[in-house]
Amino acid sequence: MEIRVLRYFVEIAKEGNMTRAAKNLHVSQSALSKQMKELEDELERPLFTRTKSGLSLTEAGALLHKRAEDILNMVDKTTDEFASLDTVRGGNIRIGCAESYLIKYLARTIKEFRKTYPLFHFHVSNGDTEQLEERLDKGLLDFAVIVEPPDSTKYKYLAFPGTDRWGLVMRKDHPLAKKEHITLADLSNIDLICSTQGIKGDLPAWSNDKSHKLRFIGTGDQIFNSAVSVREGLGCLLTFEYLANTSEESGLVFRPLEPPLEVKMYIIWKKVQTFTPIADQFRKKLIETYGPEPEDTGEEPTKEP
């Protein structure tokens, strides 16, 4: 199984069309079709099915697509690492981030860092804590920014200043919009949308394990999409302050939870990790800005009360 063929496969999956994929890859359609046939023969599984709208992935194709993306990301990351071994003038780092207003601190650090290393480039991807830790463990990321206390047995970490505050996003005409704060009792009889991580992590502790009694009608890990749903009258959204647009024109408002629920944000990296020169300089910049690193006590950091 060649890297080149995996790139061909991923491009076809993205386009859903052999002709467009061949054009993007600058190869003939017949050559591309032959490569895919040979790949299917090698795996002894069909990877695509034909539909009216084009090509769609089979179950085997979907599995290969997930694996191929990880493999190609690792290949590209390794190529970048070797390209930057002899210089710290620039290079690439990959950072996975949870959604948070506190990302502003990461942006400020990158902006300051690029004054010294103008050829430095960053690549940010999104995910929840579980997804980001998995990609970090696989070596697909250099750093991850998470909103749960890190496992200090596996990761080094630094905390960004400030906290994220939980609250309820709702339409301006919602009865609870008249309140200054939202209690557990207020939430008991309304339709709610929340991230999967929030439902499993922060809310049970805040509610004294009573959050399972709340009426969650759905989950949403993309706050923009969830806020659009709320604007259309599909429930209310439990999320961090500042993530959803609650400007005057938006038709939405944010009200904080009572008692307050606040969480910190951490940037983490593996304890046993070989950094490229540019990534190591960025790590040092983080420690200089937000350090020192906590002492290794083997205990996880505590959440904000």
UniProtKB/TrEMBL annotation:
Database matches in SUPFAM superfamilies: Periplasmic binding protein-like II, Winged helix' DNA-binding domain
Domain HTH lysR-type: 1-58
TM region positions: none
Keywords, sorted A to Z: DNA-binding, Transcription, Transcription regulation
Highest rank taxon of the organism: Bacteria
Protein family membership: Belongs to the LysR transcriptional regulatory family.
Protein name: LysR family transcriptional regulator
Provenance organism: Megasphaera hominis
